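Training component of the fellowship. As part of building independent skills, the fellow (R.M.) carried out the full modelling exercise for a liganded target. The chosen ligand was C2E. The inputs are recorded below so that the supervisory panel can assess the work.
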Amino acid sequence: GPPVGDEVLMEVGRRLSLQVREGDTVGRRGGNEFGFVMANVAHEHDAITLAQRMLEAISTPFEAHGTSFSLTASIGISVAPRDGDDADTLLKAADMALARAKEAGRNGFRFYSPAMDADASRRLSLEIALRDALARQELYVVYQPQASLDTGHLIGMEALLRWQHPQYGVVSPAEFIPIAEETGLILAIGQWVLETACVQTRRWLDIGISSLRVAVNLSTRQFRQSNLVQQVDNVLKRSGLPPQHLELEITESAFIDDVQGAVAQALALKALGVKLSLDDFGTGYSSLAYLSRFPFDKLKIDQGFVRDITENPVNAAIATAAIVMGRSLNLSVLAEGVETEAQARFLRSRRCDAMQGYLYSRPLLHADFE
Ligand code: C2E
Ligand code: MG
Ligand code: MG
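Fellow's submitted model of the complex:
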């Protein structure tokens, strides 16, 4: 009846309001229908995350007039400017998406654009499958050799995560790492990569490959864990890998929000004796002043600058400047994504220290690496 209905509508309104961020608008369009305008969408998948949060918020049982009951919601999503650029068009598109969400069985969401719908459903099924990927042993680590530009000798390798999904085949980390980050799964997965890479490297040291250093990527969320130093220390002890054989790679996004905290974390890691490198250099917004405060050992120039280094004078200038800067800050400099002899020659002439890329080797399974 209406009194209970009104109470529930108010509660729905309240729960949706909790999802509002700066610039967003939420309102009731009539009946049991609400509208939500999301103002700042950096990535299209922001809308997926919001839709998931809303469904979750509605799924908590409602209490009204002494009874408790459960409701579900259906959500239709349109995106500007892809689906229209005025309110009427966007609302109509959202209505059509809503109708499809209801047809699909309710308690879900649909995008107006079929392409985005396909992306969203792939993303959701990856998210679900990723929860069990570790337990099902679908994850494995490959190792990409790194070479000195000077001597051509192997100096180390980067551990790169791979996921063999039963239906989708090998899924790129560029696609699933962000999902793992958002869901927090990265913490368990990252810990496993670290452990696997350290144990493997210890084995290689044992068979007499003595100068190897393994580089492991730490995502932002991993880097910010308060017990990270303890975790790394434990892994080193358990695996018996001497700390100087481990290098941790972080990107600029790990320190943009809290520079002071990040500097402290980096110093604590360095105190263990491990090396620290700055990955994807040149793609972030880091200020050079911040950079000098971090105890990095190495700069990795992003492959975006290396790719056309011999044809694009701007990228050639950026890469050269990065090398000069790295050297004057006493960092070693490694270029990523080196694919041709011409690129290697250019980098060598600019006194870049090391390279990693298909020219020297693709990432390899541990048996092939050996
Ligand atoms: P990254 O750390 O910058 O890794 C380098 C990427 O460049 C790797 O892609 C590698 O396979 C690719 N690459 C190497 N040489 C070449 C080349 O000559 N040409 C081209 N076109 N590409 C080359 P991958 O393995 O797909 O990894 C993508 C990103 O995923 C990594 O970028 C890293 O940010 C992330 N990632 C991978 N493994 C892990 C992990 O264990 N933990 C975390 N947190 N992130 C990881
Ligand atoms: Mg890396
Ligand atoms: Mg990189």
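The panel noted the following from the submitted structure. Residues 158, 217, 249, 279 surround magnesium ion (ligand 2) (CB under 6 Å). The chain has a mean pLDDT of 93.
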